[in-house]
Design a protein that fits this description.
The complex is a heterodimer. The radius of gyration of chain A is 32 Å and the shape is flat. Chain A is built from 8 helices and 12 strands. By secondary structure, chain A is of the alpha+beta class. Among the domains of chain A are: 97 residues, 3-Layer(aba) Sandwich (MutS, DNA mismatch repair protein, domain I); 101 residues, Trna Endonuclease, Chain: A, domain 1 (3-Layer(aba) Sandwich). Chain B has 12 helices and 12 strands. The longest helix of chain B has 20 residues. Classes of the chains: A alpha+beta, B alpha+beta. Strand 6 of chain A pairs antiparallel with strand 1 of chain B.
């Protein structure tokens, strides 16, 4: 089974392949975030499309567990040979030709069915009747009548001056993924481990204690079977979901502390408790112990006495 | 893709500005209440027949229960709907698609075929040597104006399925069908993400914000021109010019003279009631007489030397991540690419993981670059307040002079300073109308506004910081 390809550029991991996306979500319980524009719903922000960006913690987990590999995106492309380009263009040309033919057929079909339909017949009759009336009016010859029959001077309807007669219409496809392009060869720029990717200079996370703590907490909660999402909108580091966020609400907002003995302001407890109660979640304080590589959890909730 | 359905919204069709802001609010606050329901969006197969509608968010369950087949089924259905939607190819008719060549060393895309109204708010023309290879042999460089796109503009158009982009390169002559505009190696959306982000100050965060706003129909331009050919609105001149220095200088002299003729400030009797020049006719003047701590944003901040940002003389601070990156125009604002008007909003983009909260100094230096905005028109919440008084907002005492040139502004300020009482009398006449504005609304809105977009690993949030002028709205 091929590993999931995390395409890395600017120290950021993306998932482009749909099968990879499915595996990341359904098999490995990693959600990421879709950030691309959906081509058929391009003017809204509720539903977004590929690429899927991963939080650095998510990417680190996938690679450390051996589910995925890093690919250095920028180096994976080489300049295609003329032959490759000609091949690509000929495939594309055939696609376009097929599309032109398909459209012609569709147009003919549509035209035929329109001509034979009742509505068309009725419209034709109406048009003829109108023309007859107009002719009669013109024959009567009043100058004023010209005001009421200006139809002949109006430019012909738009459909008649189509320029499609000279050049055919076809669909141009913009390639989304690179894996179909023959000059994309990620194999020689693949890194199986975090340290290898760090050495190659394409990845830098985790680089300090706080980032290690975040990776540790993320991994621990993930191993307990939770789905995790970004918690910025709820004043924490992660949102902790009992199931796929597509269907379930999160129960906890987790924030990461660099050490189990790090100090905490009372104001923070109040703020976390307040916000958590307001959003029907409890706040989870996750203290990372860098020596034993263990996490201790404390949750804050409004007690509700009195 | 049907272009008529997908008209970019310079004409505010689907994304009404009010709707869009509401949508953003909803997304930021209500993310949890209902996630996007992928089963409700039109799938790729029906896109030609169904007009794309913006679907609503769906309901969620509290938690998965053991062995619930219904929940499993719902989840499966939702996932497959999502992946179906993600699988829709990017196609456009050859009659409506645009073409461009990405030139890596210029970090720009040269548009060879520009179609559609999206270009009304994108791209700028740059004079370049006619043919890059042969300009030396001609001796004199022949310049030729052409349409070029910034990295974010290029990437957005490709991703949206509106433009086919080529990478600059040698192309064999016998390539492809003649009716396509072939000019290099084709770029996939995937390659474009790797190639164009990270160029010309464009980070992933900045691109995400750009694309988010473009999808809502805003016109987004760079605030700091990356090249001299990039048109930007005339910069707002901060009031730190020579004139202001003079103003301050003369002001000091005049206050000195004023102090000579007036009695010394008596801390126990700050009001000086009874003098011939003291005419305390309203509360505002009494309050300002009682004020002994300087107030207002016109006073310098006097930062400590060690915390000072950048260089003191310059208006820009290079070191701070809080610099204005994008100018934003509502879809309803008439926008001309060659002469952009002053922006509706100024936008700072920061990454949540590395940037701390803005300091007072950073915010102040941002506000120094921004013009004062007129107050928003008062809300028509209570139509029962039927008074025949003119409804249009009467600006606050100082905002009335903002619209006039800086010279007169400076002069009025100067004279106000020297003859405060005289001016107060003048203000007193305007006073009744001023009360029409709700001071809380004015305070909330502030005189200057900056929008800060924060991105954390893909999650975007917008925050508005306003500089409230408390000294202008005493609670009387």
């Amino acid at each position: 089974m091929a590993k999931i390809a995390l395409r890395v550029s600017n120290h950021q991991a993306f998932v482009w392949n749909i099968q990879d996306l499915e595996a990341v979500r359904a098999k490995h319980r990693i959600c990421g975030l879709l950030i691309g524009t959906l081509p058929h719903l391009a003017q809204q922000n509720v539903f977004l499309g590929v690429p899927l960006t991963l939080m650095p913690e998510e990417a680190v987990l996938l690679v450390e567990k051996g589910f995925a590999v890093f690919i250095d995106e920028l180096k994976a492309y080489y300049a295609p040979t003329p032959q490759e380009l000609v091949n690509w263009a000929s495939i594309r040309g055939e696609e376009a030709k097929r599309d032109v033919e398909r459209r012609e057929e569709l147009k003919e079909d549509a035209a035929m069915s329109w001509k034979l339909s009742d509505a068309a017949i009725q419209k034709r009759k109406e048009r003829e009747a109108k023309r007859a009336v107009a002719k009669a009016a013109a024959a009567e010859g009043g100058e004023d009548d010209a005001l009421f029959t200006p139809t002949r001077n109006i430019a012909p309807p738009l459909e008649s001056n189509e320029d499609s007669a000279e050049s055919p219409t076809f669909a141009v496809t913009i390639p989304t993924e690179s894996s179909d392009l023959s000059w994309y060869s990620p194999d020689s720029h693949t890194y199986e481990t975090i340290s290898a990717a760090k050495e190659a200079g394409i990845w830098s996370y985790p680089s300090n204690l706080h980032e290690r703590a975040k990776c540790g907490v993320f991994r621990d909660l993930w191993e307990k079977g939770y789905y995790l999402g970004g918690g910025m909108r709820f004043g924490g580091d992660y949102l902790v979901y009992p199931g796929d966020p597509l269907r379930y609400h999160s129960h906890f907002v987790a924030s990461v502390l660099d050490s189990p003995t790090s100090s905490l302001l009372p104001v923070e407890i109040v703020a976390h408790g307040r916000l958590g109660t307001g959003t029907k979640k409890s706040h989870l304080l996750c203290g990372w112990n860098d020596d034993t590589r263990e996490v201790s959890y404390h949750s804050i909730e409004w007690s509700g006495f009195g | 893709m049907d272009e008529s359905l997908e008209l970019p919204s310079l004409t505010p069709k689907i994304p009404q500005p009010t709707d869009s802001t509401e949508g953003a609010d909803e997304q930021s606050s209500g993310e949890e209440d209902g996630g996007p329901d992928w089963t409700k969006i039109p799938s790729g197969s029906s896109k030609f027949s169904v007009r794309p509608v913006i679907p609503k968010r769906g309901e969620k369950d509290f938690e998965p229960s053991e062995g619930s087949a219904l929940q499993q089924h719902m989840l499966g259905q939702m996932r497959s709907a999502m992946f179906d939607a993600l699988n829709v190819p990017r196609t456009a008719s050859n009659k409506s698609i645009s073409y461009a060549i990405w030139i890596p060393h210029l970090r720009r895309a040269h548009v060879t075929v520009a179609r559609g109204t999206l270009f009304n708010g994108m791209g700028h023309s740059v004079p370049r040597p006619l043919s890059p290879g042969e300009d030396d042999s001609l001796g004199e460089e022949k310049l030729h104006k052409r349409l070029e796109l910034l990295p974010e503009e290029t990437l957005y158009l490709i991703e949206r399925g509106s433009m086919f982009c080529w990478m600059e390169g040698d192309v064999p002559t016998n390539i492809g069908p003649a009716w396509e505009d072939v000019a290099g190696f084709p770029i996939s959306v995937q390659q474009a993400y790797a190639e164009m982000i990270g160029k010309d100050d464009l980070t992933l965060e900045k691109y995400q914000i750009y694309a988010y706003l473009k999808r809502l129909g805003y016109v987004v331009t760079r605030a700091r021109p990356p090249t001299p050919f990039y048109p930007t609105p005339a910069p707002y001149i901060p009031k730190r010019s020579m004139f202001n220095w003079l103003l301050r200088f003369w002001g000091k002299i005049f206050t000195g003279i004023y102090a000579l003729f007036s009695r010394k400030r008596n801390w126990w009797r700050p009001l000086h009631l009874g003098g011939w020049w003291d005419k305390h006719t309203n509360y505002a003047s009494i309050f300002s007489s009682l004020r002994f701590l300087p107030a207002g944003h016109s006073r310098p901040l006097m930062p400590h030397k060690s915390t000072q940002l950048g260089t003191t003389g310059d208006t820009t601070t290079i070191t701070s991540p809080y610099t204005i990156f994008y100018n934003l125009y509502k879809p309803s604002t008439p926008f001309r690419k060659t002469a952009p008007p002053p922006p509706d909003f100024s936008l700072v983009v920061v990454g949540a993981r590395k940037t701390p909260m803005p300091s007072l100094l950073e915010l102040t230096s941002l506000f120094d670059l921004l013009p004062e905005e007129p107050l928003p028109p008062p809300r028509q919440r209570h139509p029962t307040q039927s008074k025949p008084l003119p409804v249009p907002p009467v600006p606050a005492p100082t905002t009335s002079s903002v619209q006039t040139s800086t010279l007169t502004l400076g002069f009025s300020r100067l004279s106000r300073w020297i003859y405060p009482n005289w001016f107060r009398n003048g203000d007193a006449k305007v006073q009744p109308a001023v009360r029409k504005i709700n001071p809380f609304q004015a305070l909330k809105f502030g005189k200057k506004n900056i929008v800060i977009a924060v991105v954390d690993a893909g999650t975007t949030n917008f925050y508005r910081f306003g500089e409230g002028a408390f000294e202008e709205w005493p609670m009387v």
